[in-house]
Write a structure and sequence with these properties.
The protein is α+β, with helices and mostly antiparallel strands and 160 residues long. The protein is built from four helices and five strands; from the N terminus they run H-H-E-E-E-E-E-H-H.
């Protein structure tokens, strides 16, 4: 007994409206994730504090001490990390001391380094030099993530 089958129907194409909704929802979610990641990374790298210090004043600070602590590197080996305690005088005449933890300074007690501080919050001072990447980490990461989201949403719309 032979069974005769008719022509096979071609697969139904997806509704263009639903494809665009899927791509748009993906784009919104991916863009939000990129912005949240950029904000989190910026805060983790202390971007707001550093930008405020770099936009403020500079002063010469004297190293009043160096504290050493042991830590582990990525491979688990013990390393010694030193943190300098720096003291400087603001333009208003206030003396501020802080421990530089963001940057490894090769200083000894009595050495002088340039520090950056915000006039209204000199306790947030840093001896770290201004850098392009740290100043713009938030918009760079958010922009790259949004661009990737847009390209991926376009590919999804074309493929589906």
């Amino acid at each position: 007994m032979t069974v005769r089958r008719g022509p096979v129907a071609p697969p139904r194409p997806a509704d263009p409206g639903s494809v665009m909704v899927i791509a748009a929802v993906y784009f919104v979610i991916a863009t939000a994730a990129a912005v949240i990641l950029a904000r989190s990374l910026d805060r983790q790298m202390e971007g707001p504090r550093l930008r405020a210090a770099w936009a403020g004043r500079t002063a010469e600070a004297r190293c009043t001490g160096v504290r050493a602590e042991e830590a582990q590197d990525a491979e688990g080996a013990l390393i010694t990390v030193s943190h300098a305690t720096l003291e400087f005088r603001t333009e208003a005449g206030r003396t501020v001391a802080f421990e530089e933890r963001q940057r490894r300074l090769d200083v000894t007690e009595g050495d002088f380094v340039t520090v950056y501080y915000a006039q209204d919050a000199p306790e947030g001072a840093t001896a770290r030099e201004p850098s392009f990447g740290l100043r713009r980490v938030r918009p760079l990461v958010a922009g790259a993530g949004c661009l990737l989201a847009l390209v991926t949403a376009g590919v999804l719309a074309a493929v589906l």
